[in-house]
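Appendix B. Raw example, untouched.
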Amino acid sequence: MSPEELVRDIDQLVALPEVFIQVNHLMEQPNCSSAKLADIISVDTDISSRLLKLVNSPLYGLRSKVDTISRAVTIAGTQELRNLVFATSAVRSFTGIPEHLVNMEDYWRHGVTTGVMAKMLARYSNVLHSERLFVAGMLHDVGRLIIYLKLPEKATEILTITGGDEWVLAEVEDRILGFNHMDVGAALMKSWQLPDSFISVTQNHHTPTLATNYELDVALVHIALAIARGQMTGLSVDEMLWAIEPPVWEETGLSPDDISPHVDEMLKMSLDTMKMILSPLELKQA
């Protein structure tokens, strides 16, 4: 089985909200407008509420309060709102995964932390339209969820072999499956017609020097996930950053000394953002 075959029928297991399906379809039409997009999103009051909380959060740093989806679309742009709809939809959609394979609260905490940090690092790198880094970072590991859903027995074998060591996960997946969660995540991004930058980040977040496009996005998410992983395992900032290769730093124009003073601020914003994206009920159930 190939990654493409693995994700081919995933819609039968992952029920994306109707609002995302409609938004995705609309974005493909030549007459797509901000007003039409806002109308579709506004029908789903849950997603609308989460989006407004997110857009009004310090993560976006807007000067005035945004109180309607139409205003959010105008400020953030149609592509950005589409990406955010997908991110919030994904949280609701990936359910039924055996708890012994993954704690979903921990999974989303890691994803959101990576996304927030990638977006903030992008600011320090003077990247324009850094909002895309939040969604790309949040969803970088989505391939793992597909493997857990479609191949739970193989996933159990893989996790037993790795013993929780994230650094060897992809290597063990390659040995057992013939591909890894990065391959699967990239295949899923392609099947759902997400931006090419997301595909590159998902495919290369553990191997940034192999990226052949969107190298800066990949490098920023790679640094962000190293910090997020360290935060979840209780490592110090220096320990979080030790394994990052010099070419990755060169790509971003940053250094560990640039980042270290801001880590606590980024972690706090990550926690606040997670509370906006996940409802209290989902946090309790995760």
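End of appendix B.
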